[in-house]
Amino acid sequence: MTAHETITAETIAFDDHALILIDQTRLPGELVTLRCTDIRQTHDAIRRLVVRGAPAIGIAAAYGVCLAGDQTGPPTTKQIYLDAIEYLATSRPTAVNLFWALDRMRDVVESTDMGDLPAKLLDEARSIHAEDREMCHAIGRNGAELLADAANVLTHCNAGGLATSTWGTALAPIYHLHQAGHKLHVYADETRPLLQGARLTAWELSQAGVNVTVLTDSMSGSLMRQGKVDAVIVGADRIAANGDVANKIGTYPLAVLARHHAIPFYVAAPSSTFDLALENGDLIPIEQRDRAEVASPHGVTVVPEAAQVINPAFDVTPSELVTAIITERGVVHSPDKSKLADHLS
Ligand SMILES: CSC[C@H]1O[C@H](OP(=O)(O)O)[C@H](O)[C@@H]1O
C-alpha cells in the first residue's frame, strides 16, 4: 500500500464492536487512534472533532448507532436504538451528512425485526462507509478535468481523506491528478481557529507526496493578486437547494476574492451534502463553538477576558460566487436551483 493509502485509507474503522478513529485533534504531531465503544464516546468524538468533516461525521455516527445498548448487551427495544439516533444527532448541527446517515439507520430500525437489527444496522453502516469510498474516487475523476491545467490550487480547511473515508472531496481531484503524474502545488489555508488546514490538509498531502504550502488565512488575497493562484477548491458541510454553500469559516471571503480576481472557485461535495429542503443558505444552521477555541488556543490566552469572542464554525457562500459544484455524479457549472434539482434527481 502507498503511504497515502496506509495513512488515510482508515480514517474510520469498525472492528470487534468498536469504532476506531484517527484522533485528528492530535495531528500532525501524533498519529494515534481513539477507540469508541458506546454512543457517548462517539458523540464526544464528533463534538470534539476527533473525527470531523461532513462525510466522516456521517460514517462515524452510523457506526455509533451500532454501539447503542449497555454493558449487558445490545438494545432490547427499538426505542433504545431510536433514542441513540436522536442523541447522536445532537453532536453537531451543520453537516447534513450526519442527519442523512442517521436517517438511513433509522429506516433500518423501523423496517427490521428486532432480532435482526444488530447485523442489519452494521451492514447499513458498512454500506455508507463503502459508498463513501466510491464517492471520493468519483469526485476525484469528475473534478480532475477542472484542475488539469492548474499549477497552483488553493484550498481551505480539510476536505481530504481525513474528512471522509479516504481521498476526500476537495482533495480527491488533487489526489487523482497526482496519481496520474500531474504535479500540481497546493496552497493550504491554515484555517483558524482550529487549524484544520495547517494541521490536517498539509499533513495528509505531504504524506501523499503532494507539494503543499501553508498560508495564514490573511494571505490568500495577495497571492491571488500576484497571479499565484490558478483555482480554489473547497469542501462543503451543507448545500441548499439554490446552491448556497455552508463550509468552514473563511470560505466566503475566499469566494469573493476569487471572483474579484477571475479565479475559478469550485466546491466538491457528495449528493448527501445537499439539503433540498432548504431554499437558500441563510436557512442553514451554523454551529457556534466555544470561546476558548479562539481566546485560548492550546491553553495560551490570546484574548483578554473582558473582550467578547464569536466563533461560528462555518459561513455561507452564495451560489452566484461558485464556478462549479463537483459531485460523484458529475459537475454542475454556475449552479442554481433548477440545475441542481436535475443533477440530483
Ligand atoms: C468533506 S467535508 C469537509 C468540511 O468539513 C469541515 O468542517 P469541520 O472540520 O468543522 O468538520 C470543513 O468545513 C470542510 O470543508
TrEMBL record:
<comment type="pathway">
    <text>Amino-acid biosynthesis; L-methionine biosynthesis via salvage pathway; L-methionine from S-methyl-5-thio-alpha-D-ribose 1-phosphate: step 1/6.</text>
</comment>
<dbReference type="InterPro" id="IPR005251">
    <property type="entry name" value="IF-M1Pi"/>
</dbReference>
<feature type="binding site">
    <location>
        <position position="92"/>
    </location>
    <ligand>
        <name>substrate</name>
    </ligand>
</feature>
<dbReference type="InterPro" id="IPR037171">
    <property type="entry name" value="NagB/RpiA_transferase-like"/>
</dbReference>
<dbReference type="GO" id="GO:0046523">
    <property type="term" value="F:S-methyl-5-thioribose-1-phosphate isomerase activity"/>
</dbReference>
<feature type="binding site">
    <location>
        <position position="196"/>
    </location>
    <ligand>
        <name>substrate</name>
    </ligand>
</feature>
<dbReference type="Pfam" id="PF01008">
    <property type="entry name" value="IF-2B"/>
</dbReference>
<feature type="binding site">
    <location>
        <begin position="247"/>
        <end position="248"/>
    </location>
    <ligand>
        <name>substrate</name>
    </ligand>
</feature>
<keyword id="KW-0486">Methionine biosynthesis</keyword>
<keyword id="KW-0413">Isomerase</keyword>
<feature type="site" description="Transition state stabilizer">
    <location>
        <position position="157"/>
    </location>
</feature>
<protein>
    <recommendedName>
        <fullName>Methylthioribose-1-phosphate isomerase</fullName>
        <ecNumber>5.3.1.23</ecNumber>
    </recommendedName>
</protein>
<dbReference type="InterPro" id="IPR042529">
    <property type="entry name" value="IF_2B-like_C"/>
</dbReference>
<feature type="active site" description="Proton donor">
    <location>
        <position position="237"/>
    </location>
</feature>
<dbReference type="InterPro" id="IPR011559">
    <property type="entry name" value="Initiation_fac_2B_a/b/d"/>
</dbReference>
<dbReference type="InterPro" id="IPR000649">
    <property type="entry name" value="IF-2B-related"/>
</dbReference>
<comment type="function">
    <text>Catalyzes the interconversion of methylthioribose-1-phosphate (MTR-1-P) into methylthioribulose-1-phosphate (MTRu-1-P).</text>
</comment>
<feature type="binding site">
    <location>
        <begin position="52"/>
        <end position="54"/>
    </location>
    <ligand>
        <name>substrate</name>
    </ligand>
</feature>
<dbReference type="GO" id="GO:0019509">
    <property type="term" value="P:L-methionine salvage from methylthioadenosine"/>
</dbReference>
<keyword id="KW-0028">Amino-acid biosynthesis</keyword>
<comment type="similarity">
    <text>Belongs to the EIF-2B alpha/beta/delta subunits family. MtnA subfamily.</text>
</comment>
<dbReference type="InterPro" id="IPR027363">
    <property type="entry name" value="M1Pi_N"/>
</dbReference>
